[in-house]
């Protein structure tokens, strides 16, 4: 089953989708990072709460934020990214 | 001389040298010399790809300059540094498969090859080659200075002898081994950076009596140190966020990083590299900058930021272990320098010489040219680094921003936006780099953001406006 497309390499559609996923992840990463850092860290330092000895804003923004990004990036690559061949240059001859 | 510290460093240099030498012997079986020498024959696997990207990107500023600033600024600077986690996944995801496939279609060996085929313009090639040569050459000089200073401070050798040792050990494996040697040594260097960071972080926490203890010492000294705003409250949210452009998403525009996005074997390698890269770059950035902050209560009163990292390592670790850990910044510097050296050499040999001066050069001539240009460049950088400029971190960031502003849109929009054309690309490169230099000189940190932000916005507007205005896609572009 192969649909012939002369205009656009079907692999590029996959590539473009994955690029958008990258942009989405960056936006999420930024909002998480900014939200916890300045949402929780803006008050006076005397009123900070602490997690594992670190100020809570720092723990959530930088430590938890990093771990969450690792999980999300791994999930995105595992479940959303597709393996495509790079070398192939024939248009209609290959069999899938 | 403290032999217990120096011995692990020497062993490290010898190992790197041997690996570089071994990789150069792998090369002979390859088909095209140019593809092999400058791109490793597009055969990188996931682990090496991740490591070479991180090691190329992570430089003296991640291991020496950055922790030094964090020592002064406190947790606010760690927050800023964490914007770099993005580089672990964003570059490979955005350039991604499209770049890998297109580069193969074009048979591109360098970033400039890609631009040349995409835009069909001599001007694009000349401008890119020129900016790569100028900016990366100065970045290289700054890194060599950093490397030599580090050897100087660790061994007590004179600056010139330190510089000589550093230059000689890098040059040998780059010149004979090319990209494969660079990538494989980068993998080893990246692993050392990762392990060194973890060891030192743990040792610093133990020496400081636990995290809670360190944090309360810091807040007793100056509560600002544990806020996101820096020691004097000077780090505004806008300023800190603007670093997401400079050291986060803008890294896509760095030629030394982008060229790696066409060097991998297959989609599987890319997928693995994204995951490994994110984990490793995040750990290194978080760890190294935290080390800088945590060092403060343990060793108060260090005046020169660049000395924080070497001094804290010697303070909290037994000498032999300090030697291993201090191989990490050395590795970071070497792995950046080797890539830059090869990239500048490829710009001269492949992009200028073969493209325009002697297109019919024989394989043998190309081979000789590649080796000798690479060696000559090394000697030139060595001479420049003899009278070193100060403030390593800023010099490094300068060439960073100039290149990002030049390349980010011609590369990214060249890939994904069919209507982008050569006029847009040339105008955008000129605007990007030109306005970066102007802003840097006359109005640094304009509107409270890092200097790079406005030039990147301006070059985007120029690219889009000029491309639309001169619209008439060439046949090559229409295929995209």
TrEMBL record, chain A:
Listed transmembrane segments: 20-37, 57-81
InterPro entries linked: DUF997
Listed Pfam families: DUF997
Keywords, ordered alphabetically: Membrane, Transmembrane, Transmembrane helix
Source organism of the structure: Cytobacillus oceanisediminis
Name the record gives this protein: Putative membrane protein YhdT
TrEMBL record, chain B:
Any one GO biological process: sodium ion export across plasma membrane
Main location: membrane
A Gene Ontology term for the protein's cellular component: plasma membrane
Membrane topology of the entry: Multi-pass membrane protein
This protein's UniProt keywords: Cell membrane, Membrane, Transmembrane, Transmembrane helix, Transport
The keyword rRNA-binding is assigned to this record: no
Protein source organism: Cytobacillus oceanisediminis
Residue ranges that the Swiss-Prot or TrEMBL entry lists as coiled coil: none
Record lineage: Bacteria, Bacillati, Bacillota, Bacilli, Bacillales
Protein name (Swiss-Prot/TrEMBL): Sodium/pantothenate symporter
Family affiliation: Belongs to the sodium:solute symporter (SSF) (TC 2.A.21) family.
Location of this chain's protein in the cell: Membrane
Ribosomal protein in keyword set: no
Pfam families per the UniProt record, alphabetical: SSF
InterPro entries, per database record: Na/Glc_symporter_sf, Na/pantothenate_symporter, Na/solute_symporter, Na/solute_symporter_CS, Sodium:Solute_Symporter
Gene Ontology molecular function, alphabetical: pantothenate transmembrane transporter activity; sodium ion transmembrane transporter activity
Transmembrane segments: 6-23, 44-64, 76-95, 123-145, 157-179, 191-215, 235-254, 274-299, 319-349, 369-387, 393-416, 423-443, 449-470
């Amino acid at each position: 089953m192969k649909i012939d497309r002369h205009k656009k390499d079907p692999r590029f559609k996959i590539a473009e989708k994955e690029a958008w996923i990258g942009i989405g992840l960056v936006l999420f990463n930024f909002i998480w990072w900014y939200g916890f850092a300045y949402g929780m860290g803006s008050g006076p330092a005397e009123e900070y709460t602490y997690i594992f000895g670190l100020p809570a804003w720092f723990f959530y923004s930088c430590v938890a934020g990093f771990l969450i990004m690792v999980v999300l990036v791994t999930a995105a690559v595992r479940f959303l990214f597709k393996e495509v061949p790079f070398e192939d240059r024939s248009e209609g001859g290959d069999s899938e | 001389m403290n032999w217990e510290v120096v011995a692990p460093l020497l062993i490290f240099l010898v190992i790197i040298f041997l690996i570089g030498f071994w990789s150069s012997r792998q090369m002979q079986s390859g088909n095209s010399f140019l593809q092999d020498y400058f791109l490793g024959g597009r055969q990188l696997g996931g682990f090496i790809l991740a490591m070479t990207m991180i090691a190329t990107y992570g430089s003296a500023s991640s291991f020496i300059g950055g922790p030094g600033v964090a020592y002064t600024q406190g947790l606010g600077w760690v927050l800023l540094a964490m914007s770099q986690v993005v580089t672990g996944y964003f570059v490979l995801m955005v350039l991604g498969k499209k770049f890998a496939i297109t580069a193969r279609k074009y048979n591109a060996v360098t970033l400039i090859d890609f631009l040349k085929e995409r835009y069909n313009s001599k001007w694009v090639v000349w401008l890119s080659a020129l900016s790569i040569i100028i900016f990366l050459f100065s970045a290289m000089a700054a890194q060599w200075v950093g490397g030599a200073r580090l050897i100087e401070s660790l061994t007590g050798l004179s600056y010139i002898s330190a510089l000589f040792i550093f230059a000689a050990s890098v040059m040998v494996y780059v010149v004979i081994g090319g990209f494969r040697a660079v990538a494989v040594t980068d993998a080893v260097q990246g692993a050392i950076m990762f392990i060194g960071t973890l060891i030192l972080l743990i040792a610093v926490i133990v020496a400081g009596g636990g995290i809670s203890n360190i944090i309360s010492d810091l807040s007793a000294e100056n509560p600002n140190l544990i806020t996101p705003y820096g020691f004097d409250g000077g780090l505004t949210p806008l300023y800190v966020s603007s670093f997401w452009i400079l050291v986060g998403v803008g890294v896509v525009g760095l030629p030394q990083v982008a060229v790696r996005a066409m060097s991998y074997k297959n989609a599987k390698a890319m997928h693995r590299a994204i995951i490994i890269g994110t984990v490793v770059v995040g750990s290194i950035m978080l760890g190294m900058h935290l080390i800088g902050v945590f060092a403060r209560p343990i060793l108060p009163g260090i005046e020169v930021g660049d000395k924080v990292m070497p001094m804290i390592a010697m303070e909290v670790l037994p000498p032999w272990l300090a030697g291993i850990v201090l191989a990490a910044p050395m590795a970071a510097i070497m792995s950046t320098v080797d890539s830059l050296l090869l990239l500048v050499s490829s710009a001269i040999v492949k992009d200028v010489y073969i493209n325009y001066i002697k297109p019919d050069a024989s394989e043998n001539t190309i081979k000789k040219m590649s080796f000798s240009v690479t060696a000559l460049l090394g000697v030139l950088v060595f001479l420049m680094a003899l009278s070193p400029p100060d403030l390593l971190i800023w010099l490094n960031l300068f060439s960073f921003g100039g290149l990002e502003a030049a390349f980010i849109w011609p590369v990214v929009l060249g890939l994904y936006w069919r209507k982008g054309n050569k006029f847009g690309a040339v105008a955008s490169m000129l605007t990007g780099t030109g306005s970066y230099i102007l802003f840097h000189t006359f109005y640094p940190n304009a509107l409270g953001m890092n200097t790079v932000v406005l030039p990147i916005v301006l070059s985007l507007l120029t690219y889009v406006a000029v491309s639309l205005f001169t619209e008439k896609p060439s046949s090559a572009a229409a295929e995209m």
